[in-house]
Design a protein that fits this description.
Glucose Oxidase, domain 1; two-stranded parallel sheet; two-stranded antiparallel ribbon; Putative 4-hydroxy-4-methyl-2-oxoglutarate aldolase; EC 4.1.3.17; EC 4.1.1.112; RraA/RraA-like; RraA/RraA-like_sf
Length: about 130
């Protein structure tokens, strides 16, 4: 997928693009500040083998995505949350986020991760092997 097609998606109001393949024009896409997730970059032009279809399930990276599923991506990758599980998964994610904020505060106050996670017994067990 090229910058021109990515730009077209942005102009049309598409929230972001996930490509189960490569795209090109990486610097232009980066400068666009628009979320694009691809397996990599390749300077070769795109091959137009099929027509696009909408509102149908698609499989990307072995994961099937249905209309209405939540697709979230960042620099670490992309996750798909089925629409039926969205509320539960997001609640758990926010709980984890709040817990990690507590851990960061504990580290800033001088605690170690060994203390925070209670790794003392694990360390002793591994040292006694």
């Amino acid at each position: 997928m090229s910058f021109l097609l990515i730009f077209c998606c942005k102009v049309k109001g598409v929230a972001g693009v996930v490509i189960d393949g490569s795209c090109r024009d990486s610097q232009d896409i980066y400068d666009l500040a628009y979320p694009v997730f691809a397996r990599g970059y390749n300077p070769a032009p795109t091959i137009k083998e099929s027509l696009a279809k909408t509102k149908l399930p698609v499989t990307v990276g072995g994961v099937t995505i249905h209309q209405g599923d939540l697709v979230i991506g960042d620099c670490d990758g992309v996750v798909v949350i089925p629409q039926a599980d969205e509320e539960q998964v997001l609640a758990r994610a926010f709980q984890k986020f709040e817990k990690e904020k507590e851990i960061l505060a504990a580290i800033q106050s001088g605690q170690t991760t060994v203390d925070i996670y209670g790794f003392h017994d694990l360390i002793k067990a591994k040292q006694n092997r």
